[in-house]
TrEMBL record, chains A, B:
One of its GO terms (molecular function) is hydrolase activity. Its cofactor is Mg(2+). The lineage of its organism: Bacteria, Thermotogati, Deinococcota, Deinococci, Thermales. It comes from the Bacteria. Keywords: Carbohydrate metabolism, Hydrolase, Magnesium, Metal-binding. Signal peptide: none annotated. Pfam families: YdjC. One of its GO terms (biological process) is carbohydrate metabolic process. This is ChbG/HpnK family deacetylase.
Length: 267, 267
């Protein structure tokens, strides 16, 4: 499948500009409202999930809860998905060591079902790449098909921090799935002072289908309670900058909703 | 039992100054840290529960989630405790109509057990008075005894908004329980502009055991996302006021921890 061809966008520079971690904090939701871009995904177990309103929202599937606070709990009773205080495990290592397949499937389904009570989801992705363990990735793809939600699938796994032991099976799975693959752009690890330059440099990209993930959050005391608040604020300030917005306006603004309609028709 | 006599405080003005709804928002936790009073209780299903650190913390038992956002979910699977999106019901009426006794008991136990993984709880109380349905109140008292946590029990049920149909059974239960009863002081419903006066007027109280419940929250965007933020900020500004703090300093500052030691010995 060539998605851009089916969309009539071959030879264009096409951008999915994606806001991660909605529903986590009021500051994250506030940045989404303030920036005005439609696409993002919601941490359904997050306290503020019910406060997100938007046009192109997905389910940011959660299996970990990595900060001391705020923390998130599973929606289902699976013992392999929680620590002693009942929260999701705080690291991918612990998750991947313990998570039982049937408990993961039940939990991810519960998150999708709960999301459907809050908004009309268009796509799936996953917090911290929790579904990269290959047997979990199979569930992820299967649930995407079952619920007709477009799963985020990168063009390449290089540079995404995937444990090498997972790579062969993941590559095999990705080669089979009937979903478009996107070129990943992720400024998360850049120092904040390089953020504006990163966004301005997007002007130099050649044609293609790009997926840019950002974590914008308002500069508030609550937003700054997260250990990685600096990178969140840097995204917010850059994406509010008029020159960055001019650069972004030169891309075709694709939504997961439009991709979903290509794959399954309008719902 | 006369608690004040056992504490050697007979004839004194004794105050339990209690901070409600900790763990709900960053703004609520921030006010607790800023004010420096030790006593409060934590909404364990709240996203920020794991961020509360303090000397005299209780479990603010939750069975309702009344705001559009943030919302809270049960820790246990009971169907009678959740709405279609999996949150606690948004009103006491719906809760009291549907809640099954065994599901309530399981949920309240889970909240106490989870709290014990986060801090060393000293007492029990309940969000929105959710346990006032008499059969739930029996569970509340029984769990207090089982876990050796002092339950909040008011001296009188008048003016607390208890449905009249519950009153006879509640009065009978309260007359039997071996726990101290406290005189309730609650400025929540006062207009913000009367808040400072309310606190200053405490100077005129006669001797006795008083329980003053406040809902202080920092004046931040997140704090102001709650519909009742004005009453929370009014408490915060009043309790930060030097003249109010002078008035409070004339009371004996009782903690639930001290009450617990009288009832069960030091733990």
């Amino acid at each position: 499948m060539d998605l851009l061809e089916r969309l009539g966008l071959l030879g264009r520079r096409v951008l999915l500009l994606h806001h991660d971690d909605l529903g986590l904090t009021h500051a994250q939701n506030g940045a989404y409202q303030a920036l005005g871009f439609p696409t993002g995904s919601v941490l359904v177990p997050g306290a503020w999930a019910s406060g997100v309103r938007g046009e192109d929202l997905g389910v940011h599937l959660v299996l970990t809860s990595e900060w001391p606070a705020p923390r998130m709990r599973p929606l289902t009773p699976g013992e392999s998905l929680r620590d002693e205080a009942g929260y999701f495990p705080s690291s991918l290592e612990v998750l991947w060591q313990n998570a039982r397949l049937e408990e993961v499937e039940r939990e991810l389904k519960a998150q999708i079902e709960a999301a459907k009570r809050l908004f009309s989801p268009t796509h799936l992705d996953t917090h911290q790449g929790a579904v990269l363990r290959p047997d979990l990735a199979e569930i992820y793809v299967r649930l995407a098909e079952e619920y007709r939600l477009v799963p985020l699938i990168p063009e390449s796994l290089e540079g995404l921090g995937v444990p090498p032991v997972f790579l062969p099976e993941l590559e095999r799975l990705m080669a089979q799935v009937p979903f478009p693959r996107v070129r990943f752009l992720d400024p998360y690890g850049l120092p904040p002072e390089e953020r504006l330059g990163f966004y301005l440099d997007l002007a130099n990209l050649p044609p293609g289908l790009y997926y840019l993930v950002h974590h914008s959050a308002l500069p508030t005391p609550e937003g700054r309670a997260l250990p990685d608040w600096r990178t969140r604020e840097a995204d917010y300030f850059a994406l509010a900058h008029p020159e960055v917005r001019r650069v972004l306006s030169e891309f075709y603004p694709l939504t997961w909703r439009a991709v979903r309609e290509v794959l399954w028709g309008a719902s």
